[in-house]
Design goal:
This is NAD(P)-binding domain-containing protein. It holds the Pfam family NAD_binding_10. The chain has a seven-stranded parallel β-sheet with strand order 3-2-1-4-5-6-9, sandwiched between helices. Strands 7-11 form a two-stranded parallel ribbon. Strands 8-10 form a two-stranded antiparallel ribbon. The two termini are about 35 Å apart. The chain is built from 14 helices and eleven strands. Helix 1 crosses helix 8 and helix 5 packs parallel to helix 6.
Length: about 300
């Protein structure tokens, strides 16, 4: 594993699925890494067994309501990984963090955005928040002579957990697309690996590019067959109306604006070449992800 000991990376969003893998990958490369977390003790336990954590991982306690701890600890870092899950307040949060980071000397921000940022203006709740955040970070990068790399993943494989109830009670994968229409997805592991590569490559290589990350593109019948393999029973694909999909997701505790996006946004593009080019390997397939994450559905 190549070492990047001259780098110092600050990570926002370190304790979610993507953030954990980014942090562990940076540590494995012997990159000095600082993470901004609400609960330091829980985070210490989370990374207790991580390679090089004892020598290369620093914890800073703080939240978005008060960024004083971030402001006092960002100096000396040359890169920032930025993952904010608060979609509604995302543009302001990222703008505030970016302003502090660039002012402190950060040269590169790797921002986890969304493929939905490419959609028509104000047609998507998710897309509009990410678009505004991207625009603000890009302007900050220009003002400060820094760079911002935007990662734009499509639907996550993990989105299938939102309709787990349909697998259990209806023996079906439920969606509002025709059964033969291929829908785009991406592995969160692939997203994390791309982020790690960009954070450890020379900054000038990626400059201020945006990478659209679409991995596997799979139709409904094929998706259902994958879940049938792990559940050891016939699983069918059930096409429902967009309204029914929204209702199903809301009953599974998804916010209404998110459910509306999932039911109405066109996500039928073919896989992009970003993952194979950047990582030097094929993207992870939905089939392999389902097989290795059986416990999420059984």
């Amino acid at each position: 594993m190549p070492s990047s000991t001259s780098e110092k990376v600050y990570v926002i969003g370190a304790t979610g699925n993507i953030g954990i893998k980014v942090v562990n990958s940076l540590l494995a490369r012997e990159v000095s890494t600082t993470i901004y977390v609400r609960d330091v003790e829980k985070s210490r336990a989370l990374f207790a067994s991580s390679t090089n954590a004892s020598t290369h991982l620093t914890f800073v306690q703080g939240d978005y309501a008060d960024l004083s701890a971030f402001k006092s600890s960002i100096a000396g870092h040359n890169r920032l990984f930025l993952l904010v899950a608060d979609v509604e307040n995302m543009p302001t949060i990222k703008q505030d963090l970016g302003t502090i980071a660039y002012s402190a000397g950060v040269k590169q921000i790797v921002d986890l955005s969304s493929r939905f940022a490419l959609l028509d203006w104000r047609t998507s709740f998710i897309g509009e928040s990410h678009r505004l955040a991207e625009e603000r970070l890009y302007q900050l990068a220009l003002q400060h002579g820094g760079t911002v790399v935007s990662l734009r993943p499509s639907r996550f494989f993990t989105n299938h957990t939102w309709t787990k109830g349909a697998l259990t009670h209806l023996n079906a994968v439920v969606d509002c697309h025709p059964s033969d229409l291929k829908v785009e997805y991406i592995s969160i592991d692939d997203i994390a690996d791309v982020a790690t590569v960009v954070l450890t490559d020379p900054i000038e290589k990626h400059q201020s590019r945006a990478y659209t990350l679409i991995g596997d593109s799979v139709d409904g019948v094929t998706r259902a067959s994958y879940f049938g393999q792990i559940l050891n029973k016939p699983i069918v694909y059930k096409q429902v109306s967009p309204q029914e999909l929204v209702d199903t997701m809301v009953k599974s505790d998804s916010p209404w604006p998110l459910a509306y996006d999932m039911a109405t946004v066109d996500t039928t593009r073919a896989p992009t070449d970003a993952v194979p080019i950047l990582l030097g390997r094929p993207y992870e397939t939905l089939e392999s992800w389902v097989l290795k994450n059986k416990e999420l559905f059984v």
